[in-house]
Amino acid sequence: ALFALVLVVCTGCNVNGPQSTAEELGQDLNTQGFGRQFPAAPNNEFTFGPGDTLILNVADTPEFSAPHVVRADGRITIPLINDVTAAGLTTTQLAQKLKTLIALYVNDPQVTVSVGAVVSKAFFVGVQDPQQGALRLRKIPYRGDVVLMDVMTGIPMGQFNDATAVKIIRGDPRRPVIYTINAKRMVMYGETGGNLQVRPDDI
């Protein structure tokens, strides 16, 4: 009986439920990266995440020059230096950080960091299941320079809950920015003013 009572009480509360607010989630809410442990840069510049491959090159120093895969803890391992946090940093930030560390072993090192394979970035698309009618969320890898029309290509209009009010949700989960776009008019009348750039973690 006690178990049943607890279920009834918790069914009506908001803690960790679909109606939970930012205030109720408290310290469990990451306010920087839309819930990500390693948030993107504010200017939308690429930042490394777990699983991404970066290419480290130190001029005339092959022992430091190699590709590295960012581990789940956000770090890479460099010879002599050991573990270095790479997740959440841009190529410029990481290159500067590594230059300072490598300078302990190499005089005035010339360090460059470039992006290899990217697996950590994605955005999410909710479409209507044509058979069951339920809303289904799809995770799509982010490859850079993606706009709303790119996302809509290949998705039948019937799978959008309302093509006249397609929403893009992004930013701080406490106060997300929500864009409402009439995608139907974009397709039918060429009104492409709402053809927004899609960013990682957009919904």
Q: How are the secondary structure elements laid out?
A:
Layout lengths: L1 H10 L10 H4 L27 E6 L7 E4 L5 E4 L3 E4 L5 H12 L8 E5 L6 E7 L6 E7 L4 E2 H5 L13 E5 L6 E5 L1 H7 L7 E2 L5
Antiparallel strand pairs: 1-2, 1-5, 3-4, 6-7, 8-11, 9-10
Question: What can you tell me about this protein's structure?
Answer:
19% of the residues lie in helices and 25% in strands. The protein is of the alpha+beta class and 203 residues long. A 3-stranded antiparallel β-sheet has the order 2-1-5, with helices on one face. It has a two-stranded antiparallel sheet with strand order 3-4. The longest helix is centred in the middle third of the chain and has 12 residues, at 91-102. The chain is elongated.
SSE topology string: HHEEEEHEEEEHEEHE
Total helical segments? 5
Give the overall form: elongated
Spatial arrangement of strands, main beta sheet: 2-1-5
Beta-strand content bin? 25-35%
Structural class: alpha+beta
Helix content: 10-25%
Distance between the termini: 41 Å
Uncertain spans: 1-18
Overall mean pLDDT score? 80
Taking all Cα atoms into account, the compactness measure Rg is 22 Å
* Secondary structure tally: strands: 11
User: Largest beta sheet, briefly?
Assistant: 3 strands, antiparallel
